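Researcher: Here's the sequence for the chain we discussed earlier.
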Amino acid sequence: MHKSVAWLLVLTFAPALPAAPAPSAAGADWSEYSGGADRNHYSALTDITPANVGRLERAWEFHTGEFDQNECNPIVVDGTIYCTAPGGQALALDGATGQLRWRWTDPTHASKMVNRGVALWTDGPDRRLLCAVGSRLYALDPATGQPIPAFGRDGWVSLKAGLGPQAQDKYVGSTTPGTLFGDLLIMPTRVGEDADAAPGSIQAFNVRTGTLAWVFHTIPYPAEEGYETWPKDAYKNSDVGSANCWAGMAIDRARGILYVPTGSASPDFWGGHRLGQDLFANCLLALDARTGKRLWYYQCVHHDLWDRDLPAPPNLLTLRRDGRLVDAVAQVTKSGHVFVFDRVTGAPLFPIEEKPVPPSPLPGEAAWPTQPIPTLPAPFTRQTVTEQDLNPYAANLEALLAEFRQARTGPFQPFGTDETVIVPGYDGGAEWGGAAADPEGILYVNANEVGAIGSMRAMPSEAELARLSPGQQLYTRYCIGCHGAERKGNPASGFPSLIDLPLRMKRDDVRHLILTGRNMMPGFTRLSDSDREYLTAFLFGEAGGEQAGADFARDRTYVPYEFKGYKQFRDSRGQPALRPPWGTLSAIDLNTGRSLWRIPLGEFKEMTAKGIPPTGTENYGGPAVTATGLVFIAASSDSTFRVFERKTGRLLWRADLPASGFATPSIYRAQGREYVVIACGGAKADAKAGDSYVAFALPPEREVDSDQAKRP
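Model: Thanks. This is the structure I predict for it:
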């Protein structure tokens, strides 16, 4: 029921179109997001080895001047680094020195949204740097950073172009670079997560002109397969939306197959307006990259009620199975599973079982009765917890135990108005950094295991809601899920308290922020100027807009149950309530499905000083793996960069960073020297904010000696 195969052999094996990213020297560049079209975070460079990695030193540091979340994975071509900075900026840096070559800032200043990188397209002398800011996709000249006028309108096109008229007044952006295939750029998009969210259709744009080439509807239209898995008017985007790919894609350019991981439909936690299986939300899609035609799919979560988006691009690998080589695609998940498929047919390479799961306790909701669980590989995070899994170091263990005993537990437990313990938490398991993979078919994936609490609240009736002031209505509809009914937020999860907002921000800045969004907060572009004025007045405790708002509420979707907010399961000191590890790095052999090793990633130095083994920390960003057997990773909230031995997980090197590197490192060569660069923005998971890119390399004299030693 949840999988079909429909592909054309002729199209599948047709030769790829010309004009794609092409490194100038084999292995010297990091020319695409996550290192390549396969998204394997792999470098073939060999100068840095287990024998000399201990001599790595800081080569340079560049300050963007923007102290905020920076999750960029830079691309590096011909010794030039192309990257982003918070606030809608694209940068070009000298890869050997870190010196700024140019800086471009979006003239509209339309977005403070997280941006994880750019894409570079080349066709002979014609080169274009593709960068998303707000709802715009720009084409920049890589030599100067200036927009290319021939692309769209004055160098940009709208990311809403193929989403239909119903999306034009709604938030649409992109946090992840697009995927190139010939003259096409296929874009991931980020949309809202409430009932008024835009649809998440997949769009391909012509790189030369900016024109829309094709659209795939992730919420199917009538006569399209999957339409019957939704209410009949879902495609009109009246009560539901999303089902978008925000995490990025992978592509098999030789076959022309695009692999697209999609997220949940909206609203995230209430599915009463979208009863059914909800195809193609929470799916790994294989599309014909030329046309957008669906070749096969697999749905990893049916009728998602837990915000279990597929959080990262899949990995394309070649595996050894039953004495033969199989081209495979592997998808990591927030739940800590890895789904592995034949890349061409979509057939699972390990059995997947449909397991019965609990029903929803909420009237009007109908959880899907089963969920797919891979038999192999084994999960790389805990799936269940008992009282014995509570943190023995917790400050208020008895109170946590009492809370745990009152909560419901277990995989895919639908939320009710009581509390449910979620393992792993909202951010995974795996998250947007994704996994690295080597040519031997070994997957390296970091994961969170902090644990969380989830619950729903019954909303006021439509009549009761209409009696609230407009500002209260807006806060209840759009803000309460992240910042809470008491406006205390959840700073550990990146949702700040709004109680003291007037002391921290100017009124006009808040009004603008509501429109544009910031970091992981979407912009509420559908709100009118008066709506934003009402909401700002409410946040500032002002008396404006206190009249009843019946007319104000008329065109907004009513949802009877509201998510109470992203609450992590923590003790009174903010320490995770579950037993360590709280963050891990794992190696999994996808040839056999066997786990090779798993280690804690990160530490709290005050706990280590007391003799407590490293516990691991919350972590964001991913690893990179090299041909010499090294795994580079920052990611942890303890502001540390680490290198592990690929075969054993043994720590070989570590260095302090100016702020946590919540990003994936890039490995490249510039002026004959191998570098590793990491963005250090921090500013989440209780980590301080930073503004740096930091590059490491072996000392120059060591490399000279090494090169001389290799000469005959």
